[in-house]
């Protein structure tokens, strides 16, 4: 009896099926919002990609460009008259740039400096091994 | 198709599912404007991640689940300043069928807890099985079935005058 009544309610509800009348501008509003969201995401991706490329370029420049010449060229500071020492020709005179670019032969970039330091370290290790071998040989003699 | 054709595919999808999705969302939000907002948010999500919908085993259930999530977000946001809705009385007077009957059904559904009314909408108006409803709700089929049973028991009280009217007609 109770099941029958529930089935009646189901049938009644099924008969009453209806679809709501949507707002007239809903379609355009929804599609515009979807398009805008896609455009925003595409722009966000472009910005992120540009930031990554810029970061890589700056990193590459910092790694491979001589740091000292870069600083000397771009600071452009001059020596004030009070600090100048005319008696000493080795020191920069008044009005001259405080830091001058080092000669090209000594303008190492960070990469070169790192490789040189690694080379020096390795030569020191080799020298240490050689002196130990020499010492051992002499002791045995 | 969504990923390739973009806006035209979204427009086709809208025409296909919008009224039914709004009807379902309305069972949760109890308000057509909020239901339409939920649909809009769901479409934004589909536009951003079209592949998820395309690769879903049951795209319709998946889309309804997105609509459901967006509707629940709106409901949670509005809960703070929610006011009790008018019209809690049970209709016992004579009711002609069609428009007023539909109003009665709508109000009866609104009186149910959202968790029960959404199951009724999905079961009766969307013709889904309890297994499919369970996918939309993220619950077990047994839970969906018991919610449906409770909902029908309550609806049978609310709709009694209408049912008797139909029997006599």
According to DSSP, the number of beta strands of chain B is: 0
Q: What is the molecular shape of chain A? A: elongated
- Average residue-wise pLDDT of chain B: 82
CATH topology of the largest domain in chain B: Rna Polymerase Sigma Factor, Chain: A
Cα-to-Cα separation, first versus last residue of chain A: 116 Å
- State the separation between the terminal residues of chain B, measured CA to CA: 49 Å
Biggest interface in this structure?
A-B, 26 and 39 residues
Helix count of chain A equals 4
Q: What is the gyration radius of chain B calculated from CA atoms? A: 17 Å
- Strand coverage percent of chain A: under 5%
Helix content of chain A: 55-70%
- Low-confidence runs of chain A (pLDDT<50, min 5 residues)? none
Write the layout of secondary structure elements.
The complex is a heterodimer of chains A (141) and B (169).
Chain A: H1 2-15, H2 26-64, H3 67-75, H4 110-140
Chain B: H1 2-5, H2 7-29, H3 32-48, H4 50-54, H5 59-79, H6 99-111, H7 114-125, H8 130-137, H9 141-158, H10 160-168
Features:
heterodimer; A: 141 residues; mainly alpha; B: 169 residues; Rna Polymerase Sigma Factor, Chain: A; Arc Repressor Mutant, subunit A; 10 helices; 77% helix
Task: Describe the 3D structure.
With 141 residues, chain A is an all-alpha fold. Chain A has a domain at 108-141. In chain A, 66% of the residues lie in helices and 0% in strands. The termini of chain A are far apart. Chain B folds into two domains: 1-81, Rna Polymerase Sigma Factor, Chain: A; 94-169, Arc Repressor Mutant, subunit A (Orthogonal Bundle). Chain B is built from ten helices and no strands. Residues 86-96 of chain B have low confidence and may be disordered. Chains A and B meet through α1 and α2 of A and α2, α3, α6, α7 and α9 of B.
In short:
The complex is a heterodimer of chains A (141) and B (169). With 141 residues, chain A is mainly α.
């Amino acid at each position: 009896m109770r099941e029958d009544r529930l089935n009646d309610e189901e049938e009644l509800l099924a008969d009453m099926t209806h679809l709501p009348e949507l707002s007239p501008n809903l379609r355009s509003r929804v599609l515009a919002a979807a398009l805008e969201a896609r455009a925003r995401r595409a722009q966000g991706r472009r910005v992120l990609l540009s930031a990554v490329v810029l970061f890589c370029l700056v990193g590459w420049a910092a790694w491979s460009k001589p740091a000292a010449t870069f600083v000397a060229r771009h600071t452009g500071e001059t020596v004030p008259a009070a600090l100048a020492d005319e008696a000493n020709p080795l020191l920069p005179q008044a009005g001259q740039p405080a830091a001058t670019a080092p000669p090209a032969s000594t303008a190492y970039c960070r990469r070169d400096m790192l490789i040189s330091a690694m080379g020096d370290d390795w030569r020191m290790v080799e020298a240490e091994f050689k002196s130990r071998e020499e010492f051992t040989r002499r002791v045995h003699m | 198709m969504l990923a390739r054709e973009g806006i035209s595919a979204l427009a086709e999808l809208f025409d296909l599912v919008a009224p039914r999705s709004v009807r379902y969302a309305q069972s949760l939000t109890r308000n057509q404007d909020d239901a339409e907002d939920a649909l809009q948010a769901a479409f934004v999500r589909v536009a951003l991640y079209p592949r998820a919908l395309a690769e879903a085993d049951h795209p319709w259930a998946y889309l309804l689940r997105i609509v459901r999530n967006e509707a629940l977000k709106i409901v949670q946001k509005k809960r703070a300043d929610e006011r009790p809705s008018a019209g809690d009385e049970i209709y016992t007077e004579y009711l002609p069928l069609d428009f007023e009957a539909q109003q009665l059904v709508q109000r009866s559904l609104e009186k149910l807890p959202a968790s029960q009314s959404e199951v009724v909408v999905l079961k009766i108006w969307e013709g889904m099985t309890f297994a499919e409803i369970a996918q939309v709700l993220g619950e077990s089929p047994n839970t969906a079935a018991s919610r449906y049973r409770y909902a029908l028991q309550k609806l049978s009280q609310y709709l009694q005058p209408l049912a008797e009217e139909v029997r006599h007609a």
